[in-house]
Amino acid sequence: MESFPKTSTDEARGGDSTAFSLPPLLASKTWATNTTRNDTASPTADDGGITSIVMDVVVTITVCLILVAMGCTLDVQAMLKYIKRPYGIAVGVMSQFVIMPLVAFLLCLAFQLEPARALSVLVVGTSPGGHMSNLMVYWLDGDMNLSICMTTVSTALAMGLMPLCLWVYSKPFTTATTVVPYEKIVIALVTIIIPVSVGIFLKYKSPKGARLFLKIGGIFGIVIILASAVLGGIAYQDMWSGPPAIFLIAFIFPTIGYSFGYVIAWLFRMDSICRKTVCIETGTQNIGIALSILKLTFAPELASKIILFPMLYASFQGLEAMILVVSYQIWKRKCKITEEKEEEKEIGDDTKEVNLLDDDASTKDEDVYEFVTNL
């Protein structure tokens, strides 16, 4: 494995550093610190025991709900339209599987992450687009059909491109204890077809039932994600403890994704609606799939280290997306008020012009009457 040189600070401390951790309510114990550079936090006995098993089940249910919901949102006619002219989808796929994995790799190198944590960043960076992006695109007045198509196509292509990207970028971080289980990842990704097909079938048989599932599933999905965080904190009590770099990467990574997505769409001369769509699709990763792959395919002894980053990324990508949505809605409302004022002003000016024309017409009539009378 490629090793990174120690800094002078590390040598002065004997390679030790203090890790950063979340408050007690999230960590399920006192503010945790770790005195080793590698942050060798160990899980509880039997890798979390029954709590760990429950968390595996919860993660699996979460991913299934997300994928069934994805199937319920599919519009076959719209997909055929974009497949015939796949320009927008191609730009989105390039952003998703070229830009994001590369950015993840560069961030891991720049912050010199240890192998286990670097792999968690890479898995998130190589994940397909998340279902949450469709909702964000709707609030930003983006192209909903393009958003759904991009999410679906990226999820389908992830079965091949995600293992490929991991194989390309994970080599510097692979050791005897941190091995990427490619076969398990491929199997896990192939099983995506089943819940998506269930969602498509549900929409085909009962569109009303599909809409109801989306409403209920959205609320239920949030509850399950929160439950996953709580169960993770119980099963792996040091899960919320990590180096400051992992928190910083989780904050800047979505921002880079949103920014690059918009710039790339602009470079390809896509209209403003499509630029907003590609922007959100690029920065919004499918954390459910990333979390399930990390939790269900990697070695159990790595769980306490690799679960933290997906949780943090999910929090920051949602927060930053909501900031974009709120900012846009405020700007939209201001523009609407300005347009209404301009319309009122134009109507007022038109009314004045009509009054002046009427006055001129009445004056001319009086002049004609006077002229005829004089005759």
Automatic annotation (TrEMBL):
GO (cellular component) term, any one: membrane
Predominant place of localization: membrane
Gene Ontology MF terms in the entry: bile acid:sodium symporter activity
Localization terms from the record: Membrane
Chain intervals for the UniProt region annotation (Disordered): 1-21
Annotated keywords: Membrane, Symport, Transmembrane, Transmembrane helix, Transport
Transmembrane segments: 53-76, 88-113, 147-169, 185-204, 216-234, 246-268, 306-331
Superkingdom field: Eukaryota
Xref: InterPro entries: BilAc:Na_symport/Acr3, Bilac:Na_transpt, Na+/solute_symporter_sf
Membrane topology annotation: Multi-pass membrane protein
Key word Manganese present: no
Pfam family, one: SBF
Protein family membership: Belongs to the bile acid:sodium symporter (BASS) (TC 2.A.28) family.
Protein name stated in the entry: SLC10A2 protein
Taxonomic source organism: Branchiostoma lanceolatum (Common lancelet)
